[in-house]
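Posted in: Structural Biology > Protein-Ligand Complexes

Title: Requesting predicted complex, manganese (II) ion in pocket

I'd be grateful if someone could produce the C-alpha cells for the following input. Sequence and ligand are given below.
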Amino acid sequence: MFDFGTMIAGAHSIGIGGHTNPDGDCVGACLGLYNYLLAAYPDKEVTLFMEQPRRIFDYLKGFEDIVTPEKETNPEMVFDAFVALDCGDMSRLGSAEKYLEIARETMCIDHHISNTGFARHALIEPGASSTCEILYGLFQKEYVDAEIAKCIYTGIIHDTGVFQYSNTSKRTFEIAGELVEHGFDFSSIIDFTFYEKTYVQNQIMGRALLESILFLDGNCVFSAIDKRTMDFYNVTGADMEGIVNQLRLTRGVHCAIFMYEKKPMLFKVSLRSDDTVDVARIASSYGGGGHKRAAGFNMSGTVHDIINNISGQIESELKKHECL
Ligand SMILES: [Mn+2]
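-- Reply #1 --
Done. Output follows.
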C-alpha cells in the first residue's frame, strides 16, 4: 500500500527529483511537493533536484532553491527517502538517478501509463490529468497555501492544455476550484506560462498561417517553413510550437500538417486531427509516433513530395468517415 504520510514522517532527509527537460507538470509537482514538505514538516531537510526549468516558471516559490546538475555538491548523499515525480522511467531522472538508487526509501508518483514502477513504492494513476493532480490528493489540506496552490495549478494547466485534453475530468475541475480559492492570479499564470509568445514566435506563426494551403476539398491544411526563413527570423524548432494547433483550428479542417526544415531537405512533420484521421498510424508508418490526434515524424524530400506521400493515407481515413 502507498502510505505517503507514514513514509514521509519516517524520513528526515528527503530528496525530490523530476524528469529531464522539465515541463509545467514536472516543475509544478516538484515545487509543489517541496513547498508542501517545508510547510507541513518544518524540521525535515528537503532537497529538490531538477534540470534548470525555463524562466517562465520563476514565479513559483522555491524556484531559486532547485539544485540543478551544475549545483550538485554531494553526489554521494544518501537520502532517507527519495521521491521521483512525473517520471515514466528511472533514466528520465537524469543526474538525480544516483540519489534514487542509494536512497533508503524510494517513491514514484506519476500518471504515465508506461511507468515502469521503478521505485519501491509507486503510485501510478494513468487516469489522472497530471502528476500535480495525484499529488494534491496526498496533501493534508491545512498546509496548502497560495504558493503551493500555484504550483499544482500550473501543472494541471500545462498537462491538460488549459482543461482541454481528454485527460481533464470532473475531479480536475474540482481540484482547480479548490486551488483558486487560495486567491492567486490564475488567469495570468495561463497567459504567461501557456499562451504568451515572443514577438518572433508570433511572426513566424503569422507567416505559416499566411502561406498555408487547403487541400482535399478543404478537409486538410498544410504549411511549411524552410531553413532559410527560420534563419531570417532567427528561430529554432521550439519556436514553432503551437503553429500546427492553430492550423487545426481552421473551420472545416479535419487534419492539419505543419513542417519545418531541420536540415536541407529534411523536415520535421507534425500532424493534428480531430476524431476522424488517426495521425498516429500515419506517423508510425514513417518511423514516427504520437497519439491519435497528435503525432509527428521526420521525412526527407521537398514539401510537395512529403504532402504527396502522406495525402493518400489521409484521404482514405477521411473517406472511412465519409468526409470526402
Ligand atoms: Mn505530467
